Amino acid sequence: MPIRKAKASRLTTIQATAIFVCFVMGAEMITLSRQTVDLAHTADVWLSIILSGGITFLITCIGVKLSQRFPSASLYEFIQQIIGKPLGKGLGLLIVIYYVGMGSFELRSINEVTAFFLLEGTPIWALSSLLLWTSLYLCLEGIYGIGKVVQVVFPIIILVFILICFLGVNLFELDNLRPVLSEGFPPVLNAMKRTPMAFAGSECFLFILCQMEKPQKATKVVGIGLGIAVLFYTVSTLICIGVFSVEGVITRTWPFFDLVRSVEVDYLLLERLESLLFSIWILQVFSTFTMAYYCAALGISQILKVSYAKTLFFLLPLIYIVSHIPKNSNDTAAFAMIIGYTAFLLFAVIPPILLLVSYWRRTGA
After folding, report:
1. Residue 286: pLDDT above 80?
2. Using DSSP, how many helices (H) and how many strands (E) does the chain show?
3. Helices 75-83 and 350-361 meet at what angle, rounded to 10?
4. Over the range 205-243, which residues count as b (16 or more CB within 10 Å of their CB) and which as e?
5. Which positions, given as ranges, span the membrane (predicted)?
6. Residue of 242, 197, 220, 227 whose CA lies nearest to 45
7. Of 86, 137, 147, 325, which is most buried by a Cβ count within 10 Å?
8. Exposure pattern of 26-53 as b/e (b: 16+ CB <10 Å)?
């Protein structure tokens, strides 16, 4: 298991913020606009994203408060102190299964998009192997190694996103967003059914707070990180609807990719930006996958008291097999919804109960 007591292995606030944002903004970053519009059939889905972001912030703050009562332990460890070892280990294994599913979804998503846009005809096992083994190498370094990588990836992702949104404004039609709330709030609330997966990963402080140099700044990191994620999702959804209209977004599998393919710039080195976006998106999904992989391996190693490194090798083929369960894109989308709802049950319902029980039993700080 990665050593977390040494000062050199502690996460800085910047690294924790980068991990948080990269964990939240996974494969859903290119499909959220279509998924929400498909349910609401209005351009007001950006309100759904903002509302979901606010709810996620409140839920995540509860998780942070819970973790701060046990500043030297991860969720897998302190949950056993709160509700006892048998029940705590059982619940911990459910969380591990959730992260295996999340990692499998990210792997499946990156394979589908890469095979369709970049490497048509390349065997899926070859694409998967590259991602799996690279992630394995990074996870062997523990959370600090992951933090150093995402600290480099994070600003690049943000800069490319700003560039794409800036260029997409040229094709933007404000009339596609009007009238606002023409059908009231019911469609907005209905579209929120698709947002849990978009914010899955925000619970990561239940596992990384014990690795931070300054755990007291966790709430600030959550606010900044969620603010960035909500801003990204909202702006990308607004621009996709503004460019393609509500009907146009519904007919596209990956609206944000189609937006980039619609932009042509003569005064930049790359006249078409999709290759740049694909590269950045792969880095983003790789970061999300690696964090899910790490959380699953950490859980098994701490619950069953086995070697962290051996657990990583054990999970490698398991994640690959689970990623092949969905047969097509529709099955993959349904798989994502199951993961999103599971995340809501595990990290929106259970942490408040655990926090109350910890106060009642007077466990933790």
Report:
1. yes
2. 15, 0
3. 50
4. bbbbbbbbeebebbbebbebbbebbbebbbbbbbbbbbb
5. 12-33, 45-66, 87-105, 117-140, 152-171, 221-246, 276-296, 308-326, 338-360
6. 242
7. 147
8. bbbbbbbbbbbbbbbebbbbbbbbebbb
Whole-angstrom distance, CA of residue 11 vs CA of residue 13 = 7
Distance CA 161, CA 9 (A): 30
- C-alpha–C-alpha distance, residues 336 and 330, integer Å: 10
For residue 305, report the phi and psi dihedrals to the nearest 5 degrees. 55, 50
Q: What is the rounded (10 degree) CA torsion for 337, 342, 348, 353?
A: 160
The residues near 216 (Cβ < 8 Å, ≥ 6 apart) are: 68
- Residue-wise pLDDT for 193-236, tens only, equals 888 878 888 888 888 888 898 888 989 999 999 999 999 899 88
**Are 22 and 14 in contact, with CB atoms under 8 Å apart?**
no
Unique residue bearing structure tokens 């700003």: 162
Are 105 and 320 in contact by the 8 Å Cβ rule? The answer is no
pLDDT in tens, 4-52: 444 446 888 899 999 998 888 876 777 788 888 888 888 888 999 999 9
Contact, 107 vs 323, CB < 8 A? yes
H helices present in 69-119, as ranges: 75-83, 85-117
Give me the domains of the chain, ranges plus CATH numbers. Answer: 7-353 (1.20.1740.10)
Closest by Cα among 365, 71, 54 to 216 = 71
Place of tokens 């755990």: 215
Which residues, 6+ apart, have CB-to-CB distance to 356 below 8 Å? none
> Using CA atoms, how far apart are residues 228 and 25, in angstroms rounded to an integer?
10
**Average pLDDT of every residue of the chain:** 85
| pLDDT tens-digit series, residues 13-22 | 899 999 998 8
